[in-house]
Hints:
The protein has 133 residues and is of the alpha+beta class. It has one domain: Sandwich (Jelly Rolls). 19% of the residues lie in helices and 47% in strands. It contains 1 helix and 10 strands. The protein has one helix at 2-26, and strands at 30-39, 45-54, 63-64, 67-75, 78-82, 85-90, 95-98, 104-107, 114-123, 130-131. The strands form 3 sheets. The protein has a 5-stranded antiparallel β-sheet with strand order 1-2-9-4-7, with no helix packed on it. A 3-stranded antiparallel β-sheet has the order 6-5-8, with no helix packed on it. It has a two-stranded antiparallel sheet with strand order 3-10. Strand 5 and strand 6 (85-90) form a beta hairpin.
Amino acid sequence: MKxxxxxxxxxxxxxxxxxxxxxxxxxxxxxxxxLLKQDSPIPGFEEDLALVEIQPGGREGRHxxxxxxxIYVQEGTLTLYYEGKPTASYKPGESxxxxxxxxxxxxxxxxxxxxxxxxxxxxxxxxxxxxVQ
Length: 133
């Protein structure tokens, strides 16, 4: 009897874990790959080049950077929420500039993967990205 009860508890907990994990597994992915990182000639700063990919339906989450960023869209259409500015869309070949410490979020409302090259000039020793509420 105790073994059957224990088995029932294990099955219930396992089922709950699958249900809790399922929404996270279905969340569209955002990937960031650092292509180059080096010290800047500006004391206390570093320069970073990153490839960011946002799958259809994906969002980066609202965030800031401890320095400026230049974004160049290679593929797809990037929708960019930027604190204090109207939401804008950028197509392949278009670029935008993001000021240090400004809250923003890139998203992909299209049907193809968004790929952007992002160049950062950020304060050395700080995280490149900080999520915000």
